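task queued by scheduler; priority normal; single chain, no ligands, no partner chains; default sampling; output format set to C-alpha coordinates
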Amino acid sequence: MKCDYPWILTDRQRCDVELLLTGAFAPLKGFMTEKEYRSVLEDMILPSGALWPIPITLDISRELAEKLQAGDILHLLREDNSPVAQIKVNDVYPSDLPREMQQIYGTDHQDHAGVAILTKRHPFYVGGTVSETNPTVSEMARHVDFLPPYRKPSELMERWKQIGKPVIAFQTRNPMHGAHQALTMAALREVGDSHLLLHPAIGPTNPGDVRAAQRIRAILALAKTYPQDSGGFPVVTVASLPLAMRMAGPREALWHAIIRQNFGAQYFIVGRAPADPGRNPACSDGYWWPPFEAQRLFREVSRQLTIQPLFYPEYAWHHSRREFLPYHDGDQSGCFIRLSGSRIRQQLQRGEALPEWYAPQPVRDILQAGAVPQERRGLVILFTGLSAAGKSTLAKALSNVLSIRDARPVTLLDGDVVRRYLSKGLGFSPEDRHQHLERVAFVAQLISRHGGIALVSLIAPYEADRRLFRNMIKKDGTFVEVYMSAPLNVCEQRDPKGLYAQARAGQVQQMTGLDLPYEAPENPDVVIDTSGESVDMAMRHLVDYLEQHQLVTVENLEPLFAPIIP
Protein backbone atom coordinates (compact mmCIF):
# COMPACT_ATOMS: atom_id res chain seq x y z
CA MET A 1 0.00 0.00 0.00
CA LYS A 2 1.39 3.40 -1.01
CA CYS A 3 1.96 5.85 1.86
CA ASP A 4 2.68 9.58 1.92
CA TYR A 5 5.26 11.20 4.19
CA PRO A 6 6.51 14.80 4.62
CA TRP A 7 10.13 15.96 4.68
CA ILE A 8 11.26 19.53 5.38
CA LEU A 9 14.16 20.37 3.08
CA THR A 10 17.42 21.83 4.32
CA ASP A 11 18.88 24.81 2.45
CA ARG A 12 21.17 22.48 0.53
CA GLN A 13 18.40 20.07 -0.36
CA ARG A 14 16.19 22.95 -1.48
CA CYS A 15 18.87 24.01 -3.98
CA ASP A 16 19.25 20.45 -5.29
CA VAL A 17 15.49 20.07 -5.73
CA GLU A 18 15.33 23.31 -7.71
CA LEU A 19 18.11 22.32 -10.10
CA LEU A 20 16.60 18.86 -10.58
CA LEU A 21 13.20 20.35 -11.41
CA THR A 22 14.56 22.85 -13.94
CA GLY A 23 16.86 20.46 -15.82
CA ALA A 24 20.10 22.04 -14.58
CA PHE A 25 21.14 18.58 -13.32
CA ALA A 26 20.22 16.77 -16.55
CA PRO A 27 20.30 13.88 -17.30
CA LEU A 28 19.30 13.34 -13.64
CA LYS A 29 15.56 13.48 -13.04
CA GLY A 30 15.68 12.81 -9.32
CA PHE A 31 17.85 11.94 -6.36
CA MET A 32 20.22 9.08 -6.98
CA THR A 33 19.33 5.47 -6.33
CA GLU A 34 21.93 3.30 -4.64
CA LYS A 35 23.04 1.92 -8.00
CA GLU A 36 23.54 5.43 -9.37
CA TYR A 37 25.27 6.56 -6.18
CA ARG A 38 27.78 3.71 -6.29
CA SER A 39 28.46 4.19 -9.99
CA VAL A 40 29.16 7.90 -9.57
CA LEU A 41 31.41 7.34 -6.53
CA GLU A 42 33.55 4.73 -8.23
CA ASP A 43 33.57 5.76 -11.91
CA MET A 44 32.10 9.28 -12.24
CA ILE A 45 29.40 7.96 -14.57
CA LEU A 46 25.72 7.11 -14.28
CA PRO A 47 24.55 3.56 -15.12
CA SER A 48 23.45 4.99 -18.48
CA GLY A 49 27.08 5.81 -19.24
CA ALA A 50 26.62 9.58 -18.91
CA LEU A 51 29.46 11.48 -17.25
CA TRP A 52 28.49 12.71 -13.77
CA PRO A 53 31.08 13.31 -11.02
CA ILE A 54 29.11 14.37 -7.88
CA PRO A 55 26.52 12.36 -5.87
CA ILE A 56 23.12 14.08 -5.81
CA THR A 57 21.49 12.43 -2.81
CA LEU A 58 18.61 13.23 -0.48
CA ASP A 59 19.70 12.46 3.07
CA ILE A 60 16.93 11.58 5.54
CA SER A 61 16.68 10.53 9.17
CA ARG A 62 16.80 6.93 10.33
CA GLU A 63 13.28 7.28 11.68
CA LEU A 64 11.88 8.20 8.26
CA ALA A 65 14.06 5.66 6.45
CA GLU A 66 12.59 2.83 8.53
CA LYS A 67 9.07 3.81 7.38
CA LEU A 68 9.63 4.41 3.67
CA GLN A 69 8.99 1.70 1.09
CA ALA A 70 9.43 1.64 -2.68
CA GLY A 71 6.42 3.32 -4.30
CA ASP A 72 5.74 5.67 -1.38
CA ILE A 73 5.48 9.40 -2.02
CA LEU A 74 7.76 11.71 -0.05
CA HIS A 75 6.46 15.28 -0.04
CA LEU A 76 9.32 17.77 -0.07
CA LEU A 77 8.42 20.86 1.94
CA ARG A 78 9.96 24.29 2.31
CA GLU A 79 10.88 25.54 5.76
CA ASP A 80 7.37 26.94 6.25
CA ASN A 81 5.82 23.50 5.47
CA SER A 82 4.56 24.55 2.03
CA PRO A 83 5.06 21.83 -0.62
CA VAL A 84 7.51 22.45 -3.44
CA ALA A 85 7.98 18.96 -4.94
CA GLN A 86 7.56 15.27 -4.31
CA ILE A 87 9.66 12.20 -4.84
CA LYS A 88 8.37 8.79 -5.83
CA VAL A 89 10.53 6.47 -3.75
CA ASN A 90 12.62 3.99 -5.67
CA ASP A 91 14.86 2.84 -2.83
CA VAL A 92 16.18 3.79 0.59
CA TYR A 93 19.76 2.92 1.50
CA PRO A 94 22.43 3.77 4.08
CA SER A 95 24.99 6.35 3.07
CA ASP A 96 28.59 5.16 2.77
CA LEU A 97 30.31 8.24 4.13
CA PRO A 98 33.83 6.78 4.47
CA ARG A 99 33.81 5.77 0.81
CA GLU A 100 32.14 9.01 -0.26
CA MET A 101 34.78 11.07 1.55
CA GLN A 102 37.61 9.09 0.01
CA GLN A 103 36.29 9.16 -3.56
CA ILE A 104 35.01 12.73 -3.65
CA TYR A 105 37.52 14.46 -1.37
CA GLY A 106 40.44 12.07 -1.03
CA THR A 107 40.45 12.61 2.73
CA ASP A 108 38.36 12.18 5.87
CA HIS A 109 40.01 15.13 7.58
CA GLN A 110 37.47 17.30 9.38
CA ASP A 111 39.38 20.44 8.42
CA HIS A 112 38.17 19.88 4.86
CA ALA A 113 34.96 21.89 4.46
CA GLY A 114 33.36 19.27 2.19
CA VAL A 115 34.07 16.48 4.65
CA ALA A 116 32.61 18.61 7.44
CA ILE A 117 29.44 19.06 5.35
CA LEU A 118 29.12 15.30 4.84
CA THR A 119 29.47 14.49 8.53
CA LYS A 120 26.45 16.69 9.29
CA ARG A 121 24.16 14.74 6.98
CA HIS A 122 21.47 12.26 7.95
CA PRO A 123 22.49 8.57 7.77
CA PHE A 124 20.19 7.37 4.97
CA TYR A 125 19.62 8.34 1.35
CA VAL A 126 16.38 8.04 -0.60
CA GLY A 127 16.44 7.66 -4.38
CA GLY A 128 13.65 8.41 -6.85
CA THR A 129 12.22 10.77 -9.44
CA VAL A 130 11.41 14.31 -8.34
CA SER A 131 8.40 16.17 -9.74
CA GLU A 132 6.65 19.45 -9.01
CA THR A 133 3.67 19.25 -6.68
CA ASN A 134 2.10 22.31 -8.22
CA PRO A 135 3.89 24.16 -11.07
CA THR A 136 2.33 27.50 -10.12
CA VAL A 137 3.45 27.15 -6.49
CA SER A 138 6.93 26.00 -7.57
CA GLU A 139 7.33 29.02 -9.84
CA MET A 140 6.34 31.37 -7.05
CA ALA A 141 8.65 29.59 -4.60
CA ARG A 142 11.71 29.95 -6.81
CA HIS A 143 11.16 33.70 -7.06
CA VAL A 144 10.88 33.93 -3.28
CA ASP A 145 13.61 31.49 -2.24
CA PHE A 146 16.52 32.55 -4.45
CA LEU A 147 18.35 35.82 -4.93
CA PRO A 148 17.82 37.66 -8.20
CA PRO A 149 18.80 37.66 -10.97
CA TYR A 150 18.09 33.89 -10.94
CA ARG A 151 17.16 32.39 -14.31
CA LYS A 152 16.23 28.81 -15.18
CA PRO A 153 18.08 27.01 -18.00
CA SER A 154 15.14 27.49 -20.36
CA GLU A 155 15.12 31.24 -19.71
CA LEU A 156 18.83 31.67 -20.36
CA MET A 157 18.75 29.50 -23.47
CA GLU A 158 16.03 31.74 -24.86
CA ARG A 159 18.32 34.71 -24.21
CA TRP A 160 21.19 33.01 -26.04
CA LYS A 161 18.97 32.60 -29.09
CA GLN A 162 18.36 36.34 -29.10
CA ILE A 163 22.06 37.14 -28.66
CA GLY A 164 23.16 34.65 -31.30
CA LYS A 165 26.74 34.24 -30.07
CA PRO A 166 28.67 31.46 -28.34
CA VAL A 167 28.44 31.73 -24.56
CA ILE A 168 31.38 31.45 -22.15
CA ALA A 169 30.37 30.55 -18.57
CA PHE A 170 32.30 31.59 -15.48
CA GLN A 171 31.60 30.04 -12.06
CA THR A 172 32.50 31.74 -8.81
CA ARG A 173 31.62 31.45 -5.14
CA ASN A 174 33.66 34.56 -4.26
CA PRO A 175 33.23 38.24 -5.11
CA MET A 176 34.71 38.96 -8.55
CA HIS A 177 37.61 41.39 -8.76
CA GLY A 178 40.19 42.69 -11.22
CA ALA A 179 41.97 39.37 -11.74
CA HIS A 180 38.67 37.65 -12.57
CA GLN A 181 37.85 40.42 -15.02
CA ALA A 182 41.23 40.08 -16.75
CA LEU A 183 40.79 36.32 -16.99
CA THR A 184 37.28 36.52 -18.43
CA MET A 185 38.32 39.22 -20.89
CA ALA A 186 41.10 36.91 -22.06
CA ALA A 187 38.47 34.20 -22.65
CA LEU A 188 36.32 36.60 -24.68
CA ARG A 189 39.32 37.47 -26.83
CA GLU A 190 40.28 33.81 -27.28
CA VAL A 191 36.83 32.69 -28.43
CA GLY A 192 36.11 35.90 -30.36
CA ASP A 193 32.73 37.59 -30.91
CA SER A 194 31.22 35.81 -27.91
CA HIS A 195 29.12 36.48 -24.83
CA LEU A 196 30.06 36.03 -21.16
CA LEU A 197 27.79 34.45 -18.53
CA LEU A 198 28.81 35.38 -15.00
CA HIS A 199 27.06 32.64 -13.04
CA PRO A 200 27.84 32.88 -9.30
CA ALA A 201 26.71 30.10 -6.95
CA ILE A 202 24.37 31.55 -4.30
CA GLY A 203 23.53 28.37 -2.37
CA PRO A 204 25.38 27.31 0.79
CA THR A 205 29.15 27.48 0.22
CA ASN A 206 32.21 27.43 2.47
CA PRO A 207 31.80 28.78 6.02
CA GLY A 208 33.26 32.27 6.15
CA ASP A 209 32.58 33.09 2.49
CA VAL A 210 31.23 36.55 1.69
CA ARG A 211 27.44 36.60 1.88
CA ALA A 212 25.66 35.78 -1.38
CA ALA A 213 23.74 39.08 -1.61
CA GLN A 214 26.94 41.07 -1.21
CA ARG A 215 28.70 38.96 -3.86
CA ILE A 216 25.84 39.52 -6.30
CA ARG A 217 25.92 43.28 -5.74
CA ALA A 218 29.66 43.36 -6.37
CA ILE A 219 29.37 41.24 -9.53
CA LEU A 220 26.56 43.40 -10.91
CA ALA A 221 28.74 46.46 -10.33
CA LEU A 222 31.71 44.80 -12.04
CA ALA A 223 29.58 43.74 -15.01
CA LYS A 224 28.92 47.42 -15.81
CA THR A 225 32.65 48.00 -16.34
CA TYR A 226 32.95 45.47 -19.18
CA PRO A 227 33.01 46.91 -22.71
CA GLN A 228 30.04 46.58 -25.05
CA ASP A 229 30.18 44.31 -28.08
CA SER A 230 30.49 45.50 -31.68
CA GLY A 231 26.72 45.97 -31.91
CA GLY A 232 26.58 48.18 -28.82
CA PHE A 233 25.05 45.49 -26.59
CA PRO A 234 26.40 44.39 -23.20
CA VAL A 235 28.98 41.63 -23.52
CA VAL A 236 27.97 40.18 -20.12
CA THR A 237 24.91 38.46 -18.65
CA VAL A 238 24.76 38.06 -14.87
CA ALA A 239 22.53 35.33 -13.46
CA SER A 240 22.57 33.80 -9.99
CA LEU A 241 22.62 30.03 -9.59
CA PRO A 242 21.05 28.31 -6.52
CA LEU A 243 23.86 25.78 -6.30
CA ALA A 244 24.96 24.24 -3.00
CA MET A 245 28.73 23.96 -3.23
CA ARG A 246 30.33 20.63 -2.25
CA MET A 247 33.89 22.01 -2.16
CA ALA A 248 34.96 18.92 -4.12
CA GLY A 249 37.81 20.41 -6.14
CA PRO A 250 38.43 18.86 -9.60
CA ARG A 251 35.28 16.72 -9.54
CA GLU A 252 33.20 19.74 -8.66
CA ALA A 253 34.76 21.85 -11.40
CA LEU A 254 33.74 19.16 -13.90
CA TRP A 255 30.25 19.15 -12.38
CA HIS A 256 30.05 22.93 -12.73
CA ALA A 257 30.86 22.61 -16.43
CA ILE A 258 28.13 20.00 -16.98
CA ILE A 259 25.62 22.27 -15.23
CA ARG A 260 26.59 25.21 -17.48
CA GLN A 261 26.29 22.88 -20.45
CA ASN A 262 22.67 22.41 -19.37
CA PHE A 263 22.28 26.20 -19.33
CA GLY A 264 23.28 26.36 -22.99
CA ALA A 265 26.89 27.56 -22.64
CA GLN A 266 29.45 26.39 -25.21
CA TYR A 267 32.58 27.21 -23.18
CA PHE A 268 33.56 26.97 -19.51
CA ILE A 269 36.52 28.69 -17.84
CA VAL A 270 38.76 26.43 -15.72
CA GLY A 271 41.33 28.31 -13.67
CA ARG A 272 43.47 27.64 -10.65
CA ALA A 273 42.22 25.46 -7.77
CA PRO A 274 38.46 25.66 -8.49
CA ALA A 275 36.13 24.54 -5.65
CA ASP A 276 39.09 23.95 -3.33
CA PRO A 277 38.05 25.06 0.19
CA GLY A 278 41.64 25.80 1.22
CA ARG A 279 42.95 25.79 4.80
CA ASN A 280 44.66 22.41 4.43
CA PRO A 281 46.88 22.25 7.53
CA ALA A 282 49.12 19.61 5.93
CA CYS A 283 50.00 21.65 2.84
CA SER A 284 52.04 24.86 2.69
CA ASP A 285 49.79 26.47 0.05
CA GLY A 286 46.63 25.42 1.91
CA TYR A 287 45.16 23.52 -1.04
CA TRP A 288 43.73 20.00 -0.89
CA TRP A 289 44.48 19.20 -4.54
CA PRO A 290 47.29 20.27 -6.88
CA PRO A 291 46.27 23.75 -8.15
CA PHE A 292 45.77 22.64 -11.76
CA GLU A 293 44.43 19.13 -11.12
CA ALA A 294 41.01 20.16 -12.46
CA GLN A 295 42.54 21.01 -15.83
CA ARG A 296 44.16 17.57 -15.95
CA LEU A 297 40.79 15.92 -15.20
CA PHE A 298 39.07 17.92 -17.95
CA ARG A 299 41.65 16.79 -20.49
CA GLU A 300 41.04 13.20 -19.44
CA VAL A 301 37.26 13.31 -19.98
CA SER A 302 36.93 16.05 -22.62
CA ARG A 303 35.49 13.68 -25.23
CA GLN A 304 32.49 13.06 -22.95
CA LEU A 305 31.62 16.77 -22.82
CA THR A 306 29.90 18.98 -25.35
CA ILE A 307 30.94 22.13 -23.49
CA GLN A 308 34.54 23.11 -24.22
CA PRO A 309 36.88 23.96 -21.33
CA LEU A 310 39.11 27.03 -21.52
CA PHE A 311 42.24 26.65 -19.41
CA TYR A 312 43.91 29.64 -17.75
CA PRO A 313 46.65 30.21 -15.20
CA GLU A 314 46.24 32.43 -12.19
CA TYR A 315 46.10 36.15 -12.89
CA ALA A 316 47.90 38.56 -10.54
CA TRP A 317 48.66 42.28 -10.40
CA HIS A 318 51.89 43.30 -12.13
CA HIS A 319 52.86 46.39 -10.18
CA SER A 320 55.25 47.87 -12.76
CA ARG A 321 52.96 47.35 -15.77
CA ARG A 322 49.89 48.30 -13.71
CA GLU A 323 47.66 45.52 -15.00
CA PHE A 324 46.59 41.95 -14.24
CA LEU A 325 48.70 39.41 -16.11
CA PRO A 326 49.11 35.61 -16.08
CA TYR A 327 51.18 34.48 -13.12
CA HIS A 328 53.01 31.15 -13.05
CA ASP A 329 54.22 29.41 -9.89
CA GLY A 330 57.90 29.92 -9.39
CA ASP A 331 58.02 33.39 -10.94
CA GLN A 332 61.04 35.12 -9.44
CA SER A 333 60.59 38.56 -11.00
CA GLY A 334 59.13 40.07 -7.86
CA CYS A 335 56.76 42.10 -10.03
CA PHE A 336 53.53 40.33 -9.07
CA ILE A 337 51.21 40.97 -6.13
CA ARG A 338 48.83 38.17 -5.23
CA LEU A 339 45.86 38.41 -2.86
CA SER A 340 43.93 35.27 -1.94
CA GLY A 341 40.21 35.25 -1.19
CA SER A 342 40.91 34.48 2.47
CA ARG A 343 43.33 37.42 2.68
CA ILE A 344 40.70 39.75 1.24
CA ARG A 345 38.11 38.48 3.74
CA GLN A 346 40.57 39.13 6.57
CA GLN A 347 41.22 42.68 5.38
CA LEU A 348 37.51 43.38 5.12
CA GLN A 349 36.88 41.98 8.61
CA ARG A 350 39.62 44.21 9.99
CA GLY A 351 38.07 47.22 8.29
CA GLU A 352 41.11 47.79 6.07
CA ALA A 353 40.75 49.52 2.71
CA LEU A 354 41.26 47.29 -0.33
CA PRO A 355 44.09 48.23 -2.72
CA GLU A 356 42.99 50.51 -5.56
CA TRP A 357 44.19 48.02 -8.15
CA TYR A 358 42.20 45.15 -6.63
CA ALA A 359 38.92 45.99 -8.39
CA PRO A 360 37.04 48.97 -9.85
CA GLN A 361 35.96 51.55 -7.28
CA PRO A 362 32.23 50.57 -7.27
CA VAL A 363 33.16 46.96 -6.48
CA ARG A 364 35.51 47.96 -3.65
CA ASP A 365 32.86 50.28 -2.21
CA ILE A 366 30.28 47.48 -2.11
CA LEU A 367 32.65 44.97 -0.52
CA GLN A 368 33.88 47.41 2.10
CA ALA A 369 30.41 48.75 2.92
CA GLY A 370 29.02 45.25 3.36
CA ALA A 371 31.90 43.84 5.38
CA VAL A 372 31.16 43.08 9.01
CA PRO A 373 34.30 43.36 11.13
CA GLN A 374 34.92 40.39 13.42
CA GLU A 375 34.17 42.45 16.51
CA ARG A 376 30.71 43.33 15.11
CA ARG A 377 29.67 39.85 13.95
CA GLY A 378 27.06 37.92 15.86
CA LEU A 379 28.56 35.89 18.70
CA VAL A 380 27.13 32.92 20.60
CA ILE A 381 28.90 31.52 23.63
CA LEU A 382 27.62 28.19 24.94
CA PHE A 383 28.48 27.42 28.57
CA THR A 384 28.12 23.66 29.00
CA GLY A 385 28.75 21.43 32.01
CA LEU A 386 27.07 19.70 34.91
CA SER A 387 24.42 21.39 37.02
CA ALA A 388 26.14 23.70 39.54
CA ALA A 389 29.37 23.82 37.50
CA GLY A 390 29.09 27.63 37.36
CA LYS A 391 27.61 28.09 33.88
CA SER A 392 24.95 30.67 34.77
CA THR A 393 27.24 32.53 37.16
CA LEU A 394 29.97 33.08 34.59
CA ALA A 395 27.47 33.82 31.80
CA LYS A 396 25.77 36.50 33.90
CA ALA A 397 29.09 38.01 34.94
CA LEU A 398 30.26 38.13 31.33
CA SER A 399 26.94 39.66 30.33
CA ASN A 400 27.52 42.55 32.69
CA VAL A 401 31.03 43.15 31.40
CA LEU A 402 30.06 42.98 27.71
CA SER A 403 27.01 45.19 28.24
CA ILE A 404 29.39 47.93 29.39
CA ARG A 405 32.30 47.22 27.05
CA ASP A 406 30.66 46.09 23.79
CA ALA A 407 28.23 47.98 21.57
CA ARG A 408 26.35 44.84 20.51
CA PRO A 409 23.19 43.90 22.46
CA VAL A 410 23.79 41.04 24.89
CA THR A 411 21.12 38.42 25.59
CA LEU A 412 21.26 35.79 28.32
CA LEU A 413 19.64 32.45 27.47
CA ASP A 414 19.59 30.39 30.63
CA GLY A 415 18.46 26.79 30.10
CA ASP A 416 16.08 26.77 33.05
CA VAL A 417 14.53 30.11 32.12
CA VAL A 418 14.06 29.11 28.49
CA ARG A 419 12.33 25.90 29.63
CA ARG A 420 9.59 27.94 31.28
CA TYR A 421 8.75 29.81 28.09
CA LEU A 422 9.84 27.78 25.06
CA SER A 423 10.08 24.21 26.33
CA LYS A 424 7.22 23.93 28.79
CA GLY A 425 6.14 20.29 29.00
CA LEU A 426 9.45 18.82 27.89
CA GLY A 427 11.18 16.47 30.28
CA PHE A 428 14.81 15.47 30.62
CA SER A 429 14.99 12.38 28.43
CA PRO A 430 17.65 12.49 25.67
CA GLU A 431 14.90 13.14 23.12
CA ASP A 432 13.39 16.02 25.11
CA ARG A 433 16.81 17.48 25.80
CA HIS A 434 17.50 17.44 22.06
CA GLN A 435 14.28 19.34 21.34
CA HIS A 436 15.06 21.82 24.10
CA LEU A 437 18.55 22.44 22.72
CA GLU A 438 17.22 22.93 19.17
CA ARG A 439 14.81 25.60 20.41
CA VAL A 440 17.52 27.44 22.33
CA ALA A 441 19.87 27.19 19.33
CA PHE A 442 17.19 28.62 17.04
CA VAL A 443 16.77 31.69 19.26
CA ALA A 444 20.54 32.11 19.59
CA GLN A 445 20.90 31.84 15.82
CA LEU A 446 18.41 34.69 15.31
CA ILE A 447 20.29 36.87 17.81
CA SER A 448 23.58 36.11 16.07
CA ARG A 449 22.16 36.69 12.59
CA HIS A 450 21.30 40.25 13.57
CA GLY A 451 24.69 41.02 15.05
CA GLY A 452 23.92 40.40 18.73
CA ILE A 453 25.65 38.40 21.45
CA ALA A 454 23.89 35.41 23.01
CA LEU A 455 25.29 33.88 26.20
CA VAL A 456 23.76 30.43 26.59
CA SER A 457 24.04 28.39 29.79
CA LEU A 458 22.86 24.88 29.11
CA ILE A 459 23.89 21.46 30.44
CA ALA A 460 23.76 20.10 26.86
CA PRO A 461 25.14 16.71 27.91
CA TYR A 462 25.52 15.12 24.46
CA GLU A 463 28.31 15.82 21.98
CA ALA A 464 26.04 15.33 18.96
CA ASP A 465 23.62 17.99 20.24
CA ARG A 466 26.41 20.47 20.90
CA ARG A 467 27.74 19.85 17.39
CA LEU A 468 24.28 20.63 16.03
CA PHE A 469 24.26 23.85 18.04
CA ARG A 470 27.67 24.85 16.65
CA ASN A 471 26.65 24.13 13.07
CA MET A 472 23.45 26.18 13.37
CA ILE A 473 25.31 29.22 14.70
CA LYS A 474 28.21 29.08 12.25
CA LYS A 475 25.81 29.79 9.39
CA ASP A 476 25.46 33.40 10.57
CA GLY A 477 28.00 34.16 13.26
CA THR A 478 30.76 32.97 15.55
CA PHE A 479 30.36 30.12 18.04
CA VAL A 480 32.42 29.55 21.17
CA GLU A 481 32.01 26.47 23.36
CA VAL A 482 33.03 26.93 26.99
CA TYR A 483 33.30 23.72 28.99
CA MET A 484 32.78 24.25 32.70
CA SER A 485 34.62 21.16 33.85
CA ALA A 486 33.94 21.20 37.61
CA PRO A 487 33.87 17.56 38.80
CA LEU A 488 30.68 15.90 40.02
CA ASN A 489 31.61 15.85 43.70
CA VAL A 490 32.22 19.61 43.69
CA CYS A 491 28.92 20.24 41.93
CA GLU A 492 27.10 18.06 44.50
CA GLN A 493 28.66 19.97 47.36
CA ARG A 494 27.44 23.27 45.87
CA ASP A 495 23.99 22.07 44.78
CA PRO A 496 22.37 25.56 44.99
CA LYS A 497 19.01 24.31 43.67
CA GLY A 498 19.02 21.12 45.73
CA LEU A 499 18.70 18.97 42.61
CA TYR A 500 21.42 16.48 43.48
CA ALA A 501 19.98 15.97 46.95
CA GLN A 502 16.52 15.43 45.47
CA ALA A 503 17.93 13.01 42.91
CA ARG A 504 19.73 11.02 45.61
CA ALA A 505 16.43 10.86 47.50
CA GLY A 506 14.61 9.61 44.40
CA GLN A 507 12.55 12.77 44.09
CA VAL A 508 14.14 13.87 40.75
CA GLN A 509 14.63 11.50 37.84
CA GLN A 510 17.02 11.57 34.87
CA MET A 511 19.61 13.71 36.64
CA THR A 512 22.67 14.30 34.47
CA GLY A 513 25.79 13.00 36.17
CA LEU A 514 23.83 10.53 38.30
CA ASP A 515 21.13 8.84 36.21
CA LEU A 516 22.25 10.00 32.77
CA PRO A 517 25.76 10.52 31.42
CA TYR A 518 27.45 13.79 30.60
CA GLU A 519 29.67 13.50 27.52
CA ALA A 520 32.58 15.87 28.03
CA PRO A 521 33.22 18.06 24.95
CA GLU A 522 35.79 16.60 22.57
CA ASN A 523 37.25 19.92 21.40
CA PRO A 524 35.88 22.83 23.42
CA ASP A 525 37.21 26.28 22.67
CA VAL A 526 37.71 27.13 26.34
CA VAL A 527 37.97 24.86 29.41
CA ILE A 528 37.35 26.33 32.85
CA ASP A 529 37.51 24.30 36.05
CA THR A 530 35.65 26.38 38.61
CA SER A 531 36.75 24.04 41.40
CA GLY A 532 40.19 25.63 41.03
CA GLU A 533 39.41 29.07 39.56
CA SER A 534 37.56 31.96 41.16
CA VAL A 535 34.94 33.80 39.17
CA ASP A 536 37.47 36.59 38.57
CA MET A 537 40.06 34.12 37.30
CA ALA A 538 37.53 32.32 35.12
CA MET A 539 36.38 35.65 33.68
CA ARG A 540 39.95 36.70 32.88
CA HIS A 541 40.59 33.29 31.31
CA LEU A 542 37.52 33.57 29.07
CA VAL A 543 38.01 37.22 28.13
CA ASP A 544 41.64 36.54 27.21
CA TYR A 545 40.44 33.92 24.73
CA LEU A 546 37.81 36.24 23.27
CA GLU A 547 40.29 39.09 22.88
CA GLN A 548 43.02 36.89 21.38
CA HIS A 549 40.55 35.76 18.70
CA GLN A 550 39.33 39.34 18.17
CA LEU A 551 35.78 38.44 19.16
CA VAL A 552 35.46 41.21 21.75
CA THR A 553 37.52 44.11 23.04
CA VAL A 554 37.47 44.39 26.83
CA GLU A 555 40.17 46.74 28.03
CA ASN A 556 41.07 47.26 31.69
CA LEU A 557 38.93 44.42 33.03
CA GLU A 558 38.48 45.25 36.69
CA PRO A 559 37.95 42.49 39.27
CA LEU A 560 34.28 41.73 39.68
CA PHE A 561 34.43 42.33 43.39
CA ALA A 562 36.74 45.35 43.43
CA PRO A 563 36.20 47.80 46.31
CA ILE A 564 33.95 50.78 45.68
CA ILE A 565 35.89 53.90 44.73
CA PRO A 566 34.94 56.77 47.02
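post-processing summary
- Residues 255 and 443 are 37 Å apart (CA to CA).
- Residues 560-566 have pLDDT under 50 and may be disordered.
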